[in-house]
Design brief:
Blueprint lengths: L1 H36 L3 E6 L2 E8 L2 E11 L4 E4 L4 H4 L9 E2 L6 E4 L12 E7 L4 E10 L4 E11 L1
């Protein structure tokens, strides 16, 4: 019994690590695409998919540029552990971008540095308590923005 629980936990961890790496890669590729097109893009979140649109007239929902589905059983998730996630020296309250209908904007001039505000993309393994997150925060030393942290968490 103990062995199968450990195996299941290891499988969940590995699948979430892959999913969060793929999520980060999609954001980075769309940042480069924004520069290539010389146009602002936005990435909007659904429970199982991220969709990149051309940002048009202050709204996220122009022409679809690309999309990335999240592999089962992982899903984009709307919840964060506030005690754990707010201990990261965020300058303010971070956005939870993985909430359905939430989006952020990529500017062709600045790429990932231009993603407005600070935020978190959370992935959850099925209905379990195993989650992974991708943090974007202002680094206080030089005031720059970056997606620099990927973690798999339990609970």
């Amino acid at each position: 019994m103990q062995g199968s629980l450990l195996l299941n936990s290891a499988i969940a961890n590995n699948r979430l690590k892959d999913a969060i790496v793929n999520t980060r890669a999609f954001v980075e590729v769309m940042s480069e695409e924004s520069k290539r097109l010389n146009d602002s893009l936005c990435i909007q979140f659904e429970p199982k998919k991220m969709i990149a649109y051309r940002f048009a007239n202050t709204a996220c929902g122009g022409t679809v540029v690309d999309s990335k589905s999240v592999d089962n059983p992982a899903l984009l998730f709307w919840f964060i552990n506030r005690e754990r996630d707010y201990d990261r020296n965020f300058l303010g309250t971070p956005a939870i971008w993985s909430s359905t209908g939430t989006y952020f904007i990529l500017s062709p001039e600045q790429g990932l540095n231009s993603v407005s505000g600070e935020g978190i993309i959370v992935l959850r393994y099925g209905s379990s308590i195993v989650m992974a997150r991708l943090l974007k925060q202002v680094i206080k030393i030089d005031g720059s923005h970056s997606f620099q942290s990927m973690e798999v968490l339990h609970g």
